[in-house]
Amino acid sequence: MPVTDVSHDLDSRTITIVADFAAPVKRIWEVYADPRQLERVWGPPTYPATFVDHDMSPGGRMNYYMTSPEGERYYGYWEIQSVDEPHAFDFVDGFALDEQFTKNPDMPVSTSVFSFAEHDGGTRATFVSTYETVEGLEKVLEMGVIEGASSAINQIDDLVAA
């Protein structure tokens, strides 16, 4: 499994996940740059994602929903802040209320930095999410974000091997 380390820190309000992939940095970057590939790995395996909008440029927005096994949709968005292709990008990550991707003010928001670096002939990916409040971090931890994110990231291996 690619995920090699997972930690969270209430003082800094962060979750950090590190994963190693046997693929070049450019190939891992492509997973996030292509909405059809991203759909195959964003979210836990039983909650596949559909990206409705995918503008991975500074100021761009990526809107998506995940579908539960029962057919319920859960909406989310990314607001892209900066892009350093193929090494890193950062974005505001939030929950949405509906298919118009209206921000949900009752759910936590984080700023995430996804970075990719050459490591042992492959890629080391570091995913850091910083929440606005400790309560927000605690809420997503209770929701199972670490398990969900880890299982999602672990799907990348099969995608890049294909």
Automatic annotation (TrEMBL):
It comes from the Bacteria. Pfam families: AHSA1 (PF08327). InterPro entries: ASHA1/2-like_C, START-like_dom_sf. Residues 23-160 form the Activator of Hsp90 ATPase homologue 1/2-like C-terminal domain. Belongs to the AHA1 family. This is Activator of HSP90 ATPase. It comes from Nocardioides daphniae.
